[in-house]
Description:
With 612 residues, this protein is of the alpha/beta class. The protein has 3 domains: 2-241, Glutamine Phosphoribosylpyrophosphate, subunit 1, domain 1, CATH 3.60.20.10; 245-452, Rossmann fold; 454-612, Rossmann fold (3-Layer(aba) Sandwich), CATH 3.40.50.10490. α13 (358-369) links the parallel β19 and β20.
Amino acid sequence: MCGIIGYIGKKRATPILMEGLKKMEYRGYDSSGLAVIERDGIKCTKKEGKIENLEKELPTMDLDGVVGIAHTRWATHGEPSDEHAHPHWGCKKDLFLVHNGIIENYPQLKEQLIKEGHKIKTKTDTEILAHLIEKYYEDEDVKLEQAVQKALQNVKGTYGIAVITSDEPNKIVVARMGSPLVLGIISDGEYLIASDVTAILKHTRNVMYLEDGEMATVTDEGMEVVTLDNKPVEKKTEKVDWEIAQAEKKGYPHFMLKEIMEQPEVVLNAIRGRMMEEEGLAHLGGFIEQKGRLAKINSITIVACGTAYYAGMVGEYMIEEYAGIPVDVEYASEFRYKKPVIDENTAVIVITQSGETADTLAALREAKRKGALTLGIVNVVGSTIAREVDAGAYSHAGPEIGVASTKAFMSQLAILALVTMFLGRQRNMSLVMGQRILEELKEMPKKIEKVLKQNDEIKRLAKKYYKSPSFFFMGRKYNFPIALEGALKLKEISYIHAEGYGSGEMKHGPIALIDDKFPSFFLAPQDSVYEKVISNMEEIKARKGKIIAVATQGDKAIEKIADDVIYIPKTIEMLSPMLTVVPMQLFAYHVAVLLKRDVDQPRNLAKSVTVE
Ligand code: AGP
């Protein structure tokens, strides 16, 4: 998730652009840059790291221009570096572009552009788009907006872009597909464009939001909005009534709630470009490079910490059931000190949001020393672990600001389903089964949306139970890890004691704690172990334990046993954790808010545990 800003008007663009970049720092970034139209052409500078690294370059650049674009990058393709930072340009340095999103078909576009003589300098998908626009702009009498339109008609994926050229110095062309773009109207002939209203609010509250498939040509005489097939669009001006602090969270009170609500889009981004439905295959670039070794591995060890470890536990059930490979899931902090029995026929999969967790990194290095094939499921592009694994798949969850992991976990589950498919289809998984899983994976964003719509109901449950001193979270098979994750979520943000258990384990001791003050969450979707979970619920009920059940839509029978029920849509068992986890996240969130906890930065915790 990158930050984009552009300015056109009467003032010097540079200070306005820099101030806008700083307002978007909260989105997370690894590099930044800007380009300004000067009398003698466009001047551009871009630097890896903090925005102050960019700031240091400016005093020597004499930037007086009144039209410019700028960008903070959250890397999706190509590790963070000066070269990979935006803006990008084509073969000539007279047309510059900043981009937020993922160009899915950039490999094919790149191949064609190279054939046509374009010299590609970086590994980014964005540079390919700059060359594509430049290609059309070179045609006789083509205006910038026409070249952008033609280029975008060849693009698959998501983008929010801003483009400038020294040949038309009083113009910025912007376009949106899947990544937000907002136009700020400061005065006649003075406009700001940004991916995020926080960069605009200091200058104006009068905005126009571009919709997907729309583009705008902004000049010092006004702006014109059209669709990609050049149909004019009437846009209304809206007034933003958020304060900046609210705008950073898109109006949500906390980053954690915003990130919980983003999960349908996160799953879309995780699976985008990675499903070959016809062939019932998962298309994971990094795994394809290692397909020879992956076809031969005879065991898998998954290594992670915290929430990522619980994702790995779900992956164990998936891979063993659908790929028939034995899987061992290890806490990284344990793995690194034990004598793991692994060798070159073992694949070690490390799962990590930050890509910097010290225990996970140490475990990865131990696995490499023993000759295992190391694979990463990582969110932060270019992070240490992302750079040290033999191959991997990025989560594409965007920056996760809340310390309690939610959307990154969701993305990890989606990618583990794709990894399962990749390995399964190399073995005995049939085409039909592969297609069935992909078909259901595509349905998950909509189904997650349905669970999110019960936010108010879950908030009511939080109000009913938030004074409880302890909770059990119970589940079986695919939902046993979700029981553990639900307990962790509640513990880490509300500070209430909670324990997750396989529900079959209750009678071996923990049930001694049950009384009418000790509520239990049961994950009880209608799956292969449903009846077993129901009988465990009966055991709790018989001891006056209160029960909150997560059940499949239409399951009325469960209401005779549970005190409260949250319903989720039906899905295939291996993907049910992507639905059952959502009520756990929302319940923990609302309990923490009721207890006035620091939801986004809970006490004692860090977002990335870079110490042992
Ligand atoms: C989860 O909500 C916690 N913040 C924590 O358990 C986290 O999952 C763990 O520290 C692993 O972090 P990583 O995914 O960045 O490696």
